[in-house]
Design a protein that fits this description.
90 residues, mainly alpha, 4 helices, C-type_cytochrome_biogenesis, TPR-like_helical_dom_sf, TPR_CcmH_CycH
Length: 90
């Protein structure tokens, strides 16, 4: 559902992922799916939040950290004034 072309499917996918996090808020796989789902829905704040939790949970030497940090930078760039996308498009 999180990869569907249908916006309602994507939104439902995000809701299901948030429900899954209630059981285990440190589940890296669910956090990752939630972050990318939020990013695709242009909900950059939610994406950044999920990625930041991942950075807190992952070990310092985990290779995924670099990708997550780049993703956060990309999402932050989308929320800056003057960009074509906006965090308000949630």
């Amino acid at each position: 559902m999180t990869r569907s072309a249908d916006a309602q499917d994507n939104q439902l996918g995000g809701l299901l992922l948030r429900e899954m996090l209630k059981d285990d808020h440190t589940n890296i796989r669910v956090l990752s799916l939630l972050a990318f789902n939020a990013f695709e829905r242009q909900n950059y704040r939610e994406a950044i939040g999920a990625w930041e939790i991942m950075l807190k949970v992952l070990p310092a030497n985990d290779q995924r950290r670099a990708v997550i940090e780049r993703s956060i930078d990309q999402a932050r760039a989308q929320t800056e004034p003057g960009t074509t996308e906006s965090a308000d498009k949630q």
